[in-house]
Amino acid sequence: MHGSWPKLTAILVLSGLGGCIAMGFVPWQQSLSGAGKLVALAPMERQQTIDATVEGRIVKWYVAEGSRVKKGDAVAEMADLDPVLPTRLGLERTAVLERIRAIAERERQLDERIHELNQSLKNEVSAADFRIQQARDRIRAAEQTQEAANAKVLVSTQNLDRHRAMFPKGLVSKRQVEVAKADKDTADAELRRAEAQLDETGNVQRTAEMDRARTMNNGLAIIRDARASRESARSDSASARQSLQPVETRLNRQSTQTILAPVDATILRLVAQPGSAV
């Protein structure tokens, strides 16, 4: 009895080792029964719905249910619900482009006008400065004439006074006194003319300076108006270009009405028939 235990233990150990070795050569699998839904771990491998980029109607299917497609394969061809929409969008785009071209031409003309106005103002101001300088030169000449006339009046006055003092003493004749008086009158007249000339040249200078200021103010006002018009044109151009973007976007979408497969896949179901709106 006691001798049979070692034999039984050895048989059990050998059986266990043999079972372990046998399991090493048998494929290992796990199974679990139950109800549920299998979902692929990778999002791109799950069931997907292909949506149209724009509203329209199906013209043609390039696939059938159960078809295998590669990424980029044509799936369907679509057309807009409005058959004349591409034409209307094209006309709208042409109108906007023409508006942009007209605004650009207007902006170019305003740039040229501003340049011409600046050059014209520069020339007019230079001419006004020249007239002012001429007036100043005449004023200096008139001042010198006045100084000479003053000196002549002083001399003629002293000469007349001297002749009048000597006449009672018989040192000069009456005729000499009359000549001295005539010289004094001539000197006085020349002084009055010199003073009048100085006043006149002063008025000419003041008029030239006022003309220059008026020319500058008027020219700058016209240039400001032209620059404001140019800024308005630039704003209109930016607005027109902004309005062009949605038109071109819609046109581009219209030109890509073929629906493509986003990934390699199998077509499970077609939910719309040719002619159906989607």
Q: Would you write up a description of this structure?
A:
The chain is mainly alpha-helical and 278 residues long. The chain is built from three helices and five strands, in the order αβββααββ. The longest helix is centred in the middle third of the chain and has 82 residues. The chain is rod-shaped. The N terminus is likely disordered.
> Into which percentage range does the β-strand content fall?
5-15%
Q: What is the structural class?
A: mainly alpha
Instruction: Round the mean pLDDT to the nearest integer and report it.
Output: 81
Gross morphology:
rod-shaped
Q: Could you give the distance between the termini?
A: 89 Å
Order of helices and strands: HEEEHHEE
Low-pLDDT regions = 1-17, 36-41
Count every beta strand, where a strand is a DSSP E run of 2 or more residues: 5
Query: Any idea what the radius of gyration is?
Result: 56 Å
Specify the number of helices. 3
Strand order of the largest sheet: 1-3-4
- What's the story with the biggest beta sheet? 3 strands, antiparallel
Portion of residues in helices? 55-70%
Provide key terms for this protein:
single chain, 278 residues, mainly alpha, three-stranded antiparallel sheet, two-stranded antiparallel ribbon, 5 strands, disordered N terminus
Task: Give a brief outline of the structure.
With 278 residues, the chain is mainly alpha-helical.
